Amino acid sequence: MRSKLFTSLAAAALLSGLLAGAAYAFPSGGTPVEPGPDTITWTGQGVTFDGTDWKPSSEICPGTVPAGVDPNSYLHWIFTTDGGSADTDATLTLGGSGTGSYSTTKDSGGAFHFYTPYVEPDPSMLTAVASFTVITTGNGSWNLVISHGCGGGGGGQGDPLGITKTADGSYTTTYDWTIDKTVDTDTVYSSGGGESQEATFTVSVTKDAGADSDWLVAGQIEVTNPNDFDVMGVEVTDSVDNGGTCTVTGGSGVTVPANGSVVLGYSCTYASAPDLTGNNTAVVTWPGSPDLLAGSANFVIAFSMTQTIVNSEIDVTDTNGQSWHFADSGSATYSMTYTDPAGTCTEHQNTATITQTGQSASATVTDCQGADLTVTKTATPSYDRTYTWTIDKAVDKTYVEKPDGTATFNYTVTVGHDAGTDGNWKVAGEITVTNPNDWQDVVVDISDELPGGTCTVTGGTDVTVPMGGSAVVSYECVFASDPGTGTNTATATWDAATYWTPNGSASGTAGFTFGDPTNVIDECVFVTDSYAGTLGTVCVGAANPAVFTYSRTVPVPAASTCMSYDNTATFTTNDTGATGSASQTVTVCSYQYRLTPGYWKNHLAYDPKTPNNPWVAKYLTITLGSYAVDSTAKATAVFNGMNCSKSGDQNSVGCLAGHLLAAKLNVANGANPCIGATITSADAFLVGIPYVGPAGKYVLSAAQRATAISLKSALDGYNNGGYCH
User: Fold this and answer.
1) Exposed/middle/buried for 461, CB within 10 Å: 0-12, 13-18, 19+?
2) Is it the case that residue 539 has pLDDT exceeding 70?
3) Among 587, 593, 573, 697, which residue's Cα sits nearest to residue 641?
4) Within a 13 Å sphere around the CA of 481, how many CA atoms are in the beta-carbon half?
5) In which element (H, E) is residue 717 found?
6) Which of 128, 303, 435, 469 could form a disulfide with 167 if both were Cys (CB 3.0 to 4.6 A apart)?
């Protein structure tokens, strides 16, 4: 797998160099374009793969190296100029699995030597680039190679790190209590301001079995470094053997100083009750380095959990001035009488509170007389007319391909609405229940009735009407169609015996008449565009549909790249905020224009009269199947062998070969490489027949001839400017 990846990287680097030759950078094995600053990229020269690891092809351990370089751990790089020359300021920079920049250690007649620390020379993981200034280009290939190296490591190894720790366990047992207070009567009566009837109160508390929680093991971990150098990249973890989850604060990427230590806090938590004893283990691991072998150490300590008890016993105080102590579930009872002014009613509330938790319970006794409640109401008819909107977006084209300049796209946004839908017929309003009593709240149930409609009262159950005040609730009656006119009745009911009133219900009515539509919903939309911004507001009554147009001009991107532009038009209705959108995506690609076989046939070599025009010789050698076109004479012969007006065996092969050569020249010249799959298929076909050049004689089966014509047609369309995006 690694050897395949290396081949892929080398090919990619070579292609990059071909496409970007003017950028003053080339892969190893290439030649600089002209004097000046330049770079050469290592493409895997000088290494081998032994089935497990990549190594220098030549290993010398220990090696003879300059001062300051470890002879047991180094790579020796050589950069050669093959007849050319470069300034002595060459620099080698490693990336990927390597790092650092290195100056030359020796310049000997066009060869530059670099020494770097050893790193596995895997071409898929390691990158190396030499930067320099070209003086003369020479005539041969410039190379950056690994001459030899040693990966055996060097130097003595330090002592392992040490670790100690503490571990303290704890958990809490909490008892939950509930409190309740009752009275044997809600209401007592008295006359003439005398003493009321007796009300008996009972305070009850209940204790549960207790619940354990907050199991925790916590402490500190100390990591010590006995060496006279810092150890970096240390990882510290902690665990327990009774089901907890442990976290070490700052335990990743720790640096332990030379002859020093680092103390880290940790904690272990539990989702459920664990064993109350166990062992806690801290583990420290460290990476290898020239001074210290990678390794790990641990420290195990036993622990047990200490119990904390909360609310085993409680105290209860009461607003009557009494108090009680409870160690378990129980109750206390007492009686009260009241003396209040005549002619009014007074509410008396007693509250018992648990001192430790703040929980409380109350009971109320009211000394009172009662009167009936009254009901009034409103009735407002309404219905809606709702409009539904649609949006569409069109563009005059979605793809443009050209080498430079700009591209303009013309967009049309269309927004329209339907005739509207009537519905939501209803009668709605408020029901007011008034309580004339100045001494008690009254709890009522409120209902509403209207023939032909389905009525709902919002919050009409157990409505508390405050003493001396009113309660207002909303209601709504829904109809399937226009009900015309009618009378709406609301009724409030309550328990007359509970509130000592003469009756237990009261009613109120209101009339209504339906007319014109009440609500027009979503009659307008606000239209925006992700590029053009605000397009405008469209309302019912204007042109339907409404049309917006705009143009967008974009630059052609960098050579051999494409840029896509997403444009979305959106409407938002003015009432419900309903939205709709329509999108168009356009693409602009920057590629050289496709050139026909006729052009390439007439532009074989560089012509100083048209220095900017491409020529065939610039891109040779090109293979057609297994046949190498390595001269302009061969290219001319291939083009001369084209007779695309006839579909016989010989002409089908000749036409396919000529169009394949032109397509490969176009791709090499920077045209859209989208024809790549067809090129691959054409090469495979020519290999299969096999193709030996325009002088060969070819006999095809019917299927082969059909394949040749199909491939030729696709390449012909491409060479004549047809899109294949």
Assistant:
1) exposed
2) yes
3) 697
4) 0
5) helix 702-719
6) 303
